[in-house]
Specification:
disordered N terminus, D-Maltodextrin-Binding Protein, domain 2, about 350 residues, alpha/beta, eleven-stranded mixed sheet, 2 domains
């Protein structure tokens, strides 16, 4: 497998990495542009190559893939894009950089609320936007996202930036469920309840709770799991509970990683084979075990660690509905000056 890591810090770095992919008319290969990290993609790709004889080339980047595809146009070498969140999937679609895929295999494997109605993108894994809580000061309680705006949590909440895609997606879902005006009130009160200015990543929120800087925070499920598998971080995360919000009503908000076929994919047929493979049992199981995410294919089991957190009810609001309210969510985050 010719897998090249270009942890992009600028377009120049990306350009040099993309130039070494195979020519567009090469046989039996698929070229991937990926926002997902190598440790997660490589095991799946290696098994696909072994099973099919189709060679896969991967370029990894942190940003700039949509812009690159737009510049390359019909001369692109990329067949697939793998993304880390719904906002980047929608960016590809909005910029008309992807093509629809008609596949009964993918449709059977990926529930309808986790794929584009026009089949221009598909989810690959799910992650819950959980609430982390101090075992000592909060405990294992029933909680909702709406509760974070109550006086009970005054000065007790930590979170990362409001501009991060995970936060934007959650606020978008609140707009979908409650409307713009009510979400603005909720967001204002959540900001007033913050123990500190939004900062850090999801692991940083767990560390802040363990250090007594706050009692609760928002964070993705797989970060909680990954800290449990890290010997240095396990003593920290063991001071924190992972809570699944809104279990008595709509269920917990989820975000997704996903994939899309590029508009000018030079190896379309083989790329679709890989897309089907990524939604199948083996690949979904690898995702579940390696990164402790939830598979999109309902019949695939989660990892033992994730299973130990118990079953939960997820919010089945279609991803497309969440994406629809993204601009409103960003406007509200600016309006309440959430990060200031």
């Amino acid at each position: 497998m010719k897998s090249m890591i270009a942890m992009a810090v600028g377009i120049a770095t990306l350009a040099s990495s993309f130039s070494v992919l195979s020519a567009p008319n090469s046989e039996k290969e698929v070229n991937i542009y990926s926002y997902r990290q190598a440790f997660l993609i490589d095991p799946v790709v290696a098994q696909f190559e072994k099973d099919t004889g189709i060679n896969v080339n991967v370029v990894f980047a942190k940003k700039g893939l949509a812009e690159r595809l737009k510049r390359e146009g019909k001369y692109t070498k990329a067949d697939l894009v793998l993304t880390t969140d719904i906002s980047r999937l929608m960016e590809l679609k909005d910029k008309k950089l992807v093509s629809p895929v008609e596949s009964s295999i993918i449709e059977n494997n990926v529930p309808s609320h986790l794929r584009d109605p026009q089949n221009q993108w598909f989810s690959l894994t799910k992650r819950v936007r959980n609430i982390y809580a101090s075992k000592e000061r909060v405990g294992n309680i029933a909680i909702t996202y709406e509760d974070l705006a109550t006086d009970k949590y005054k000065g007790k909440i930590c979170t990362r930036s409001g501009k991060h895609p995970y936060t934007v997606a959650l606020v978008s879902s609140m707009v979908a469920h409650h409307g713009e005006a009510e979400t603005e009130v909720w967001l204002t009160k959540v900001k007033e309840n913050l123990a500190r200015k939004p900062q850090g990543n999801d692991r940083g929120q767990i560390k802040a709770i363990a250090a007594g800087q706050c009692d609760v925070s928002l964070g993705n499920s797989y970060y909680f799991g990954n800290m449990h598998t890290n010997p240095e971080q396990k003593p920290i995360v063991e001071k924190v509970n992972i809570l699944f919000p809104n279990q008595q009503n709509r269920g917990s908000h989820i975000n997704v990683s996903g994939m899309a076929l590029t508009k000018y994919a030079p190896h379309k047929a083989d790329a679709i084979k890989l897309m089907e493979y990524l939604t199948g049992d083996l690949a979904q199981s690898i995702y579940a075990k390696v990164n402790l995410e939830y598979p999109v294919k309902p019949s695939v089991e989660v990892s033992p660690l994730v299973a130990s957190w118990g079953e939960f009810k997820e919010d089945e609001l279609p991803m497309i509905e969440i994406a629809k309210h993204r601009k409103t969510a960003l406007m509200l985050l600016d309006k309440v000056k959430f990060d200031l």
